[in-house]
Amino acid sequence: MPGFGAADEAEMGTRGCGPLIPPLSESMRPLRQQVFERVRASGLIPRVQVAKDLGVSPASVTTITSELIEAGLIEEVSAPRDPELGRGRPAVALGVRAQAHMVAGMKMSDREHSAVIVDFAGNLLANEVVPRRPGPMPLAEMLDAMALLLDRVCDNAGIARAALSGVGVGLPGFVDQAEGVVLWSSTLTERAVPLAEAAQARLGLPVSIDNDANLVALAELWFGAGRSLADFAVVTFEHGVGMGFVMNHKIYRGSQRLGMELGHTKVQLDGALCRCGQRGCLEAYVADYALAREATTALNWGHREGQSISVLLESLYEHAQSGDATARSIFRRAGRYLAVGLANVVNLFDPALIILSGERLKFDYLYAAETLAEMDNLVINTGRPRPPIEIHAWGDLLWAHGAAALALSAVTERILMAPREMAAQ
Amino acid sequence: MPGFGAADEAEMGTRGCGPLIPPLSESMRPLRQQVFERVRASGLIPRVQVAKDLGVSPASVTTITSELIEAGLIEEVSAPRDPELGRGRPAVALGVRAQAHMVAGMKMSDREHSAVIVDFAGNLLANEVVPRRPGPMPLAEMLDAMALLLDRVCDNAGIARAALSGVGVGLPGFVDQAEGVVLWSSTLTERAVPLAEAAQARLGLPVSIDNDANLVALAELWFGAGRSLADFAVVTFEHGVGMGFVMNHKIYRGSQRLGMELGHTKVQLDGALCRCGQRGCLEAYVADYALAREATTALNWGHREGQSISVLLESLYEHAQSGDATARSIFRRAGRYLAVGLANVVNLFDPALIILSGERLKFDYLYAAETLAEMDNLVINTGRPRPPIEIHAWGDLLWAHGAAALALSAVTERILMAPREMAAQ
C-alpha cells in the first residue's frame, strides 16, 4: 500500500498482542472461547455457574479456567458471601482481568470523529472528539484523521500507542468486516477501499473495521443488553437508519457481511429518492435528510448555504410541538414508515428485544404512542405480545465504545483461537 | 387432552426410538452432533475429511465415530479408490446407516394432505396424497385426517405404524415449533392449538410440527442445497408466501419461533388487504388469492361458486401469454412486488443463495427477466454481484419430505443429545 506507513509509524509486529495461551486440545478450543465469553458477559461468575450455564462438567471448566488465569485473561475475585450460607470457604468468582489489554475504538462519522480507550473489561480510560467538515474525504486524508485522533486519545489516557493491543474503527456504509474492505461509505470518496490493511500499516497496530450500526449492537452485546440476552436487534437512527442483529451472543452479518441494511429495505415501490440513488428506501422517509427535505418546504426556508441540518430539524420539532399542522404531519408520516420498518423486523427476525438507538430519538415522534400503535397493527397477529422496545438515546461515544468492543473481540479471538503453530511461538 | 387417544391407538413409549448411545463426556456432546451432521450432510466422507472440516483432531473423530457406529447410526462403506494413488489399504468412508430409522413426514395444506415415509438416509420408501375440501377444520377432524393419512402411507410402505421412530408435520400459518403449538393456521378453526401433543397422543408416536415454509428449507438443508452450503434462504410461493432461513447449517426461527413471515412484511403503507386482516402485506400482492382477486375483474368472470382458483389462474396466465394487456399488467405488478420482497431479503439477510420454491413458479412472470432486473435496482449497490437465485418448482411431496427431515432431526437430536440419565436407561 504505497503512500502509507510514514517513517514515524511503527512496523506491525506481535507487540501488544499479549500473552498467548499454551496449546490446548483442538477439540476443546470452541469450549475455551465459550467459557471466556460466559465470564466476560457475566461480569463476575462462580465456576460452578459457568459449568451449569454451558452444560459441561465442572472438571472441564476448572481445566479451562486455569489456563485462562495462567494466560492473564481472567482472574479470581473474592465474591461477597451469602450470609445465609454460614461458615465455610470464602466464595470465589471469576472475572475478566481488566489490565490484561487496552484497545482503542474510533467512529469516523460524517460530522465528527470520536474515540475511546478502554481496558479489557471495557472500562473507559479516555475519550476524544474531533469535529470535521462534512462530506466524503480521500483515503489518505482519512488515514491522517485516524492517526491524529488516535494520538490525541492516547495523550488523554497518558499512554503510548504501542501500549494498545488493537484498534476498532466504525464508519457508515457498506463494510465487509471480515475482509476489512469499505465497499462504499458516505465518508470516503473512493469505493472498495481496503481500509483495515491501510490503517494497520499507518497506525502500526492490528485494526478491525465494521459498519457503525453493527458497532452499536456490539456495544450492547458486550456492555449492555447482551449481558442478559442471547438474541436482540438494534435499530439506529442518525444521518441514516442502520441495524445490527445479535443471534446466539454473536453479531449476524450475512454471507458477505453486507446484511442488515434496514435503511435500504424498500417500503414503497417507486417511492421517495434515497441518497443511495434508489427509490422507496425506509431511510428516504425517516432519516435526517428526509425530514430536512420536507422541513425546508414546511418552514418555507428555501436553500440556505451552510445551514446545519440539526438547526433545521430542531426548528421543525419546535413547530410541531407548538401545534403546527404541517410540521406535525412530517413527523407523523415518518413515524408511520418507522412503524413499517420495525414491524418488518419483528415479522422477519422475531427478536426477543428491539433497542432503538441514536441521538435523533429525542424527537419523540419516533416512539410516540401513535407509532407504536401503528406498529401493533403491522406485526403479525399471533395472539402473543410483540417484542418489547427499549430506547437507548446514547451519543457518539457509545458508537466508539462499540468500536472498542470490536477491537476487544479481535484481540480475544486472536488469543483464544490461536492455532498450535502460533501458540507455540 | 380429553377426547384423543382412542383405544386402537398405541400408548406413547420408548419404542421406535432406536438404540441409545452410551454416555459420552458432556463437553464432547456438541462435537458428537457436529460429527454426525457432517457425515449426514456429506453422503459419504472419509474420517480424515471430517476432522479437517471440523478443525478437530483425527483421534477425537475416531472416538466419536466408533460410538456412532456402535449405536448403529452410521456405518463404514468401502469407497471407490482413486486409481492414481496406487496400492494400499482400500479407502473407507462413513455414511448414515439408512436402515437405522424410518420416519413419516406429512403436509396438511389447504387443498390436500400428503405424506412420505423415508429411511434414516432420507430415501423415499412410500408416499400418499389425500385430497380434501378447502377451508379450516376443527382439531378433532384434523387428527382424524392425520391418522388416516399415516395409516395409508404405512400401508403403501408395507409397514406398521410402530415401525416408525417419529412423525413430522407441516402446516401453513404461525407455528411455534419448539412448543408444538399452532397459534394460527388457515387449516384449523381454533387458535393456539397444542397440535404436537394432541397428535402424539392420537398417533402413539413422537410428533414434531413446524411452519410449512421451514419444512421446504429443511428439505433443502438435508437433501438439497444444504449439502454444500451453510447459509441460504428459501422463499416459497403457493397459497401464500413463506420463507425459511438456514444459517450455519441450522434453521433460524426467531426467539419465539415466529420469524421469517416474509409474506406478511409490509411493502405498502395502507396497501392491499391481506387474508391475515392487515394491509400492505407482500402476500396481498403476489399470492394466489391476490392474483385471483384481480383476475375476476380482468377476465370479467364475476364470482363463480366452487370455482377452482387454479383454473382461474391458468386462464389468466393463458390470456397473458396470448398478449392480453390487462392480464399481463396483473402479472407484471405481482412480479414488481416480488422483486421488492426478494430485494428486502437480500438487503437484510445477505444470503449466499435464494431458492424460490413452489408450484406457482411455473408462472414464469415470477422469475421473468424484468422481475430480476427490477430486483437488481432494489438491492443495495455494493459493487458486488447480488446472490444467485435458483428455481426449485417442486410439488407437495417436497414439503412432505421436509416434514420427514423435521422428524429425522428430532430423532437424531433425541439420541445424540440424550442426557446421561436417559442414555443410561
Describe the overall structure.
The structure is a homodimer of 425-residue chains. With 425 residues, the first copy, chain A, is α/β, with parallel strands linked by helices. The first copy, chain A, has 3 domains: 26-98, Orthogonal Bundle (Arc Repressor Mutant, subunit A), CATH 1.10.10; 101-217 and 398-424, Nucleotidyltransferase, domain 5 (2-Layer Sandwich); 230-352 and 359-393, ATPase, nucleotide binding domain (Nucleotidyltransferase, domain 5), CATH 3.30.420. Helix content of chain A is 39%, strand content 17%. Chain A contains 13 helices and 14 strands. The first copy, chain A, has helices spanning 29-42, 47-54, 58-70, 139-157, 195-203, 212-223, 283-286, 288-298, 309-321, 325-349, 369-378, 396-416, 420-424; strands at residues 74-78, 92-96, 102-108, 112-119, 124-131, 166-171, 174-176, 181-184, 207-211, 232-237, 241-247, 250-251, 354-357, 389-392. The first copy, chain A, has a 5-stranded mixed β-sheet. Chain A has a 5-stranded mixed β-sheet with strand order 12-11-10-13-14, sandwiched between helices. In chain A, strand 3 (102-108) and strand 4 (112-119) form a beta hairpin. In chain A, helix 10 packs parallel to helix 11 (369-378). The radius of gyration of chain A is 23 Å and the shape is globular. The relative contact order of chain A is 0.13. Residues 1-19 and 420-425 of chain A have low confidence and may be disordered. At the A-B interface, helix 1 and helix 10 of A face helix 1 and helix 10 of B.
